[in-house]
Amino acid sequence: MSHEKSATARPPYGILAVLMIGAFIAFLNNTLLNIALPSIMKDLEIETSTVQWLSTGFMLVNGILIPTSAFLIQKFSVRRLFLLAMTLFSAGTILAGFADAFPVLLAGRMIQASGSAIMMPLLMNVMLVSFPIEKRGTAMGFFGLIMMGAPAIGPTLSGWIIEHYDWRMLFHFITPIALIVLVAGFVLLRDVKERSGAKLDFMSVVLSSFGFGGLLYGFSSAGSKGWDSLQVILALVIGVVALVTFIMRQLRMERPMLNFKIYRYPMFALSSAISIVVTIAMFSGMLLLPIYVQTIRGISPLDAGLMLLPGAILMAVMSPINGKLFDKIGGRPLAITGLFITVVTTYLFSQLKMDTTYTHLIVLYSLRMFGMSMVMMPVSTNGLNQLPTRYYPHGTAMNNTLQQVSGAIGTALLVTIMSTHAKTRGTELAQEAAKNMTSQPTAEAAAAMKQQIVMQATLDGINYAFFISTFIAGLAFVLSFFIKRSTQAEDIISNRSLNEQIIKPQVSNQ
């Protein structure tokens, strides 16, 4: 579909509605699980470094499969890909709902991920080709409203379910909805796309899997095994070597699986860099705050979910507003403002105390979400706007792949920082307590002292991780000053190759 055609044709609202509902279910499942992690840890008797695999394992599968989505979008129809994605997601949800051991639960999550990996790039690509560039910010804003609805209701719904039922009910709740969406897609969607002659290069798939998979596994394992583990080092080395080989192969191929030539477009390259850094920083709030409020403060799952609700609602409401602002003023003012708010609020989260008030946490988290709402969608849309239409599948696949990789890196990095600092502080606090003892404490007093030391050390570890996250967000803030409003490069396809003669992009100074 050409850009001109997509600009004048009526957007396929029916297809978009079905795709958005499917993606909404996938997002809702993720936000439901965040609040449930402490309950899962207790029920299955596992540690933080183990339970994080429910997130990083999900991202691992996404990181392996998403690079193939550009090929899949070009090769198959929207209907076939959607039905495949929802079938896999539904199967994984059913398996996870009946899990009685962590490996089974993890397997269910990874099957879910195989469906999610297809869903998001597919939806983004349909959005891009359905709206002209001057209306794309508004369209993406309303897309953000739908997608932010899941974070708005997910934590609160999860907290209520966990407080009244077993955590497995989270998956049982999603299962019938996913099956209804699957049936709706089967009935409503039609095959309207002609098959292309694209062929999947097997070696590219292997190199991509070992490249992105190796990096994701290495960073994810570092949280539990340590950075000096031979297994971690070997995974990272294999990942780097395979990824470099994969990139070199793609640059030489006439029809690459994932086209790295899109990085010749400066605004897309900049948007990728900012998105990577912001995603890493974003995981500090998503991962550390639930641990703080439930493990240290003893706040109930329902109250923890309610604490996150105002911020999620604010982010959802601001999404279409920011979309309209993006169409009018561009991405730079939004990104600079949003990242400044993000940096300040992240730093304030590094000053948490044992008695930080519930209201303070709500206000701070809401402000952080308000800032985040100005960054992710506008920056990503500005970068994609510069690409010719034929590169949209590659751009969306690249963005989603890098988001998963950076998410896994952020999770592993912050968990490692928190755990390492907490152990160090625990040792220091124990030594200080031993020095200040005047007599041998009773067994009850010793147990209470040990519990207090563990809680304080964990709090210090969380604060330190937020402090490091502040500098990470600061890097994205600096990069945001280089954003310029992009216009789409000419979509001229050479008779010799789709990938030759990339037109130099035009970038205004707005």
UniProtKB/TrEMBL annotation:
Coiled coil: none annotated. SUPFAM superfamilies: MFS general substrate transporter. One of its GO terms (cellular component) is plasma membrane. Keywords: Cell membrane, Membrane, Transmembrane, Transmembrane helix, Transport. One of its GO terms (molecular function) is transmembrane transporter activity. PANTHER family: MAJOR FACILITATOR SUPERFAMILY MULTIDRUG TRANSPORTER MFSC (PTHR42718). Belongs to the major facilitator superfamily. EmrB family. This is Drug resistance transporter, EmrB/QacA subfamily. It comes from Exiguobacterium sibiricum (strain DSM 17290 / CCUG 55495 / CIP 109462 / JCM 13490 / 255-15).
